[in-house]
Design a protein that fits this description.
The protein has 421 residues and is α+β, with helices and mostly antiparallel strands. The chain contains eleven helices and 15 strands. The radius of gyration is 32 Å and the shape is elongated. GO terms for molecular function: ATP binding; metal ion binding; protein serine/threonine kinase activity.
Length: 421
């Protein structure tokens, strides 16, 4: 091979290597550019997700009041809020996790239809009750919206005070003041504990519940129908003062509205008025009926089964009516407190209870009249008519059949039986 051909071959190899290096460098460069672009887009997505998650101090702005319902916040073109923002203290989820020892069973105070209630201790040492709504309960979400909407507006010594809430991802919690003596039912229907409820304490509990309901019906900014008044929703503080809780089923009446109708009946049998259970009609008189059941339960220490076709020994309303008409009303009184009572006070309260549970709403007194009757020994009190769900003997079979048919015709009934807190 000649010298010129060797030089030519060497030159070609150098060109091939140079081209290969150049192409390889370009491929690597393009790969790096693509990788950089993808990483940049990923970072932008992460930043966007971060910005979409509201900070704890701003999270409250996601919920506002509109037509009596808590809804997502909406702003106009200029970023101005279209409706009034809801002011409510917010708790960080991890703060409540630590306060309740990670929602341990040892911290559990009770369990209801929408979730569990736990005892918690905040960093400052304040003891609270934390209601953690079930993630799978759609009704639980509605309950929280209802309570959040109402608690910002309602303040009364006989209503449980709500300290704040937590809304993070799937977690929805409400933080209440802690009630040392939990719920009324834990004392009332316990043979060992009910002896601690003297007649004086029971009467004050009745009056406290009445004051709380009167505030809801008449003295608050809105006319509020609770719709789920029962012994487990009456909490007791250290001094045994009664406080109404759980406004998840409550409804606000506006203006001159007095009666509403729903296809979805929610509440607890034994406390629901007949017009509500049968036809879905509810009003302040529905709460009055529930209050009347509570009064008779507090006096007797017995729970009303609420069934219109149970035996008389299990139906508290029927039993009370029978004893009243036979002149034996004092036999209704809880045996554990019969020794130290004022008979006139007991008889008056039994009569008030029967007035509240009368079958027809228009026959029942309103809460202002009830408080007057409870506080005055000289106020004239009318005679009660038969209570709702009471089946008169002369047409028992006919009315029993009618009631069964009415129960079948109700579109949907949600029965809530909550355990004591």
């Amino acid at each position: 091979m000649t010298k010129s051909s060797k030089n030519s071959s060497s030159s070609n190899n150098k060109v091939v290597k140079l081209v290969g290096i150049t192409i390889g460098s370009c491929v690597v460069l393009i790969f790096l550019i693509i990788l950089f672009h993808l990483m940049r887009k990923k970072l932008q997505r992460l930043k966007k997700l971060e910005s979409d998650i509201p900070a704890p101090e701003k999270r409250v702005k996601d919920f506002i009041l509109k037509d009596g319902v808590v809804v997502p916040n909406k702003r106009d073109y200029y970023g101005e809020t279209k409706t009034d923002e809801l002011e409510l203290p917010l708790f960080d989820f991890m703060t409540l996790v630590m306060a309740t020892n990670n929602f341990s069973n040892s911290s559990k105070l009770g369990q209801g239809g929408f979730g569990c209630v736990y005892k918690g201790t905040l960093k400052e040492g304040e003891v609270v009750a934390v209601k953690r709504l079930s993630r799978i309960s759609e009704q639980g979400i509605e309950e929280l919206k209802n309570e959040v909407q109402l608690i910002a507006k309602l303040q009364h010594r006989n209503l449980v005070r709500v300290l704040g809430c937590c809304i993070e991802a799937e977690e929805k919690l409400l933080v209440y003041e802690f009630m040392e003596n939990k719920s009324l039912d834990m004392f009332l229907f316990d043979k060992e504990k009910n002896v601690t409820l003297s007649w004086k304490i029971r009467l004050e509990i009745i009056c406290g519940i009445a004051r709380g309901i009167l505030y809801l019906h008449q003295d608050s900014r809105f006319k509020v129908i609770h719709r789920d008044l029962k012994a487990s929703n009456i909490l007791l503080d250290r001094q045994m003062n009664a406080k109404i809780s759980d406004f998840g089923m409550a409804r606000i009446f506006g203006g001159d509205q007095n009666v509403a109708k729903t296809k979805k009946v929610v509440g607890t049998y034994g406390y629901m008025s007949p017009e509500y259970a049968m036809d879905g009609h509810f009003s302040t008189k529905s709460d009055v009926f529930s209050f009347g059941v509570l009064v008779l339960e507090i006096i007797s220490g017995k729970k009303n089964t609420g069934s219109c076709y149970t035996s008389s020994q299990h139906n508290l309303l029927r039993q009370t009516w029978t004893l009243w008409n036979e002149g034996k009303a004092l036999e209704l009184l809880d045996e554990s407190i019969r020794a130290n009572i004022f008979e006139n006070e007991v008889l008056r309260c039994i009569q008030i209870g029967l007035l509240c549970v009368q079958e027809h709403p228009e026959d029942r007194p309103n809460m202002s009249n009830i408080l007057l009757l409870l506080s005055s020994e000289i106020a004239q009190i009318s005679l009660p008519k038969y209570p709702g769900f009471f089946i008169r003997k002369r047409n028992t079979e006919t009315e029993f059949s009618r009631i069964q048919d009415d129960l079948r015709s109700i579109n949907e009934i949600t029965v809530s039986i909550l355990h004591g807190r």
